[in-house]
Write a structure and sequence with these properties.
308 residues; Rossmann fold; 10 helices
Length: 308
């Protein structure tokens, strides 16, 4: 198996789970290009020391990808994350690292018929309406990042139409140990532990289907094992959205603090509501989220207390 983005937040957990199950995995990343290079290089060394893991440093946008397509399955988690940084100069970066890299990887895998599991994002839906978002709903991406993920999905559909066994997983607001420092819960917890006000974009009423990384790994490995029609899209997200304010209240209770908030202007393209319908995941992957937000936040707080 190949896992791209292996030194990242979700990728490192997937590699760890696969190796723990006794499978060999080629862990692909480009740590020198990472947004958090110190963290990624440390994780890169840690991955390389695990039994059954072969680290391979590649830039998917320019390097030869034929060796990756020789695997039985590729889990494609690499990409440029984040709505906030995708505007302005960041638009070219998400085009390169999300669209170009994914196109090249899908083309390489198509030549060999290699199974691919592609990570997408709930951001492709735009703001959720009165009901939960379903996989067949029309897409309304509201930022360059979201548009790049929608284009990756279009490329995956085209590859599936040509016969490539590819599955698309739409992740919803993943959190937990190893979360990137720019992500909301990491910022909130770090600020609270340091006695600083918590930086909140908007008024805190935004709703999210927060999904623990352990649940995301379970869904991802289930998709690897499953035999699905090419081009199948599956939501991977909690069916119970929670407001940012309520999540902050849980964090504050766990830390025994009275939260102080510093409000910032909302981020353009950051939608007011995401809400996953996990019905298809239950039917096709036998997956339902198992980690309640309260428990998952304790898990992340424990990790951040000991994180470098």
């Amino acid at each position: 198996m190949v896992v791209t983005g292996a030194a990242g937040f979700v990728g490192s957990h997937v590699v760890e789970a696969v190796a723990r199950d006794g499978l060999d995995v080629v862990a692909v990343d480009a740590p020198r290009r990472s947004l958090t290079p110190g963290v990624t290089r440390e994780r890169w060394r840690w991955l390389g020391g695990r039994a059954g893991v072969v680290p391979l440093e590649l830039d998917l946008a320019v390097d030869d990808l034929a060796p990756l397509a020789a695997a039985d399955v590729v889990v494609h988690l690499a990409g440029r994350p984040g709505v906030r940084d995708s505007w302005g100069p960041g638009e070219a970066a998400v085009e390169r690292d999300n669209v170009v890299a994914s196109r090249r990887l899908l083309e390489a895998c198509a030549r060999r018929g290699t199974k691919v599991v592609v990570a997408s994002s709930s951001s492709v839906y735009g703001p959720a309406g009165a009901r939960a978002s379903r996989e067949d709903d029309p897409l309304a991406p509201a930022s360059p990042y979201a548009r790049s993920k929608a284009e990756v999905e279009r490329l995956a559909r085209a590859a599936a139409d040509a016969g490539l066994p590819v599955t698309v997983l739409r992740y919803f607001s993943v959190y937990g140990p190893r979360q990137r420092p720019d992500m909301a819960f990491h910022r909130f917890i770090a600020a609270a532990l340091a006695g600083r006000p918590l930086p909140v974009f908007g008024d805190g009423t935004a709703l999210r289907s927060f999904t623990h990384v352990g649940d995301v790994v379970t869904a991802t490995t289930a998709a690897v094992r499953a035999t699905l029609p090419p081009g199948t899209v599956v939501n991977v997200g909690s069916g119970e959205p929670t407001s940012v304010n309520d999540a902050i209240a849980l964090i504050s209770d766990h830390l025994g603090i009275e939260p102080r908030i510093t409000a910032h202007a909302p981020i353009p393209g950051d939608v007011p509501r995401t809400h996953a319908d996990p019905t298809r995941a239950a039917a096709l992957l036998d997956w339902t989220p198992a980690v309640p937000l309260d428990v998952g936040l304790k898990d992340q707080i424990t990790w951040q207390r000991g994180a470098p």
